[in-house]
Amino acid sequence: MKASVFINSHSGSVQSAGADTISALIAETLKKADIGADIACGDPGTFKEFCECLKRPDDLAMAVIAGGDGTFAMAAEAFAHAPVPVAFLPAGTMNLITHDLGVDVGLEDAIEDFLNWKPRKIDIGWINDRTFLNNIVFGDYAEVAEAREHLREAPTLEERLGAISEAAYTLFHSEPERFVLAASGEVIKVRSNMLMIANNRYTGAVEMRPTRDRLDRGKLALYLADSRDGVELVARVMEVLRGDIESSEAIEQREVTQCRITAENNPVTVAVDGEPIEFDSPVEVRIEPGALTVLCPE
Hints:
Elements: E1 2-8, H1 12-17, H2 19-32, E2 36-42, H3 47-50, E3 60-67, H4 69-79, E4 86-90, H5 96-100, H6 107-113, E5 118-127, E6 130-132, E7 135-139, H7 140-153, H8 157-172, E8 177-183, E9 186-192, E10 194-199, E11 204-205, E12 210-211, E13 220-225, H9 230-242, E14 251-256, E15 258-263, E16 268-272, E17 275-279, E18 283-296
Parallel strand pairs: 1-2, 1-3, 3-4, 4-18
Antiparallel strand pairs: 5-6, 5-18, 7-10, 7-16, 8-9, 8-15, 10-13, 11-12, 13-14, 15-18, 16-17
């Protein structure tokens, strides 16, 4: 019996502690339970190679992934309907999905405890053929997310300042875009600089981190924000982060199982679990109930 382990070496907590240290801690935890470990460290670009373990499941007890929300979103596609459960170890910035799964500790504490976690089925969201576990966001929020990625990857001070300027420019010049949503037999026309779709609805927030009380309702939550400029965009984002989304008079909410979104701009940039990705418009969004088996605290 063994576990296949992938460590995203670009994740913040992994960079702080060192990939070798995190690898050794995970190997030690598994060894105590007499579970062998195949451990791979790398960036998300090497993740597909790691997923080859699914083709050899005979002696595989579990998969273990240390990373952030973007890494876990990629894992959802690879491990959908897989015969083994997946343990997500929080090593990113927000760690939204792990918090919603009840993992309220840091990376090293999670490593000590994950063998005590129990299997649970959760829903997977899809935008075309890409998976998401938290949310997807259209509009200038996605452009700001792209600037954030440039900042994170910038190797020089000059390039970091350029990324900050890029984000500031987007907010200062933010304008609404036109979207047409087709869902549940209804056509909805939206003009906004922020349109968000969540994999199950948000019900609150903890420490400026939006939370969901369930991940298995089998529903997409549409959030149509009344937001036309940079100031209103920041205000809507703050409502989400503070947990005021359900009481907001500026955010219309609906629940569906699938929808089609046609954007005014084509291609359209969408923040998928925080990662900016370009899609051709229109895009198809759907939810697949109970498609992913994860390990999490009871």
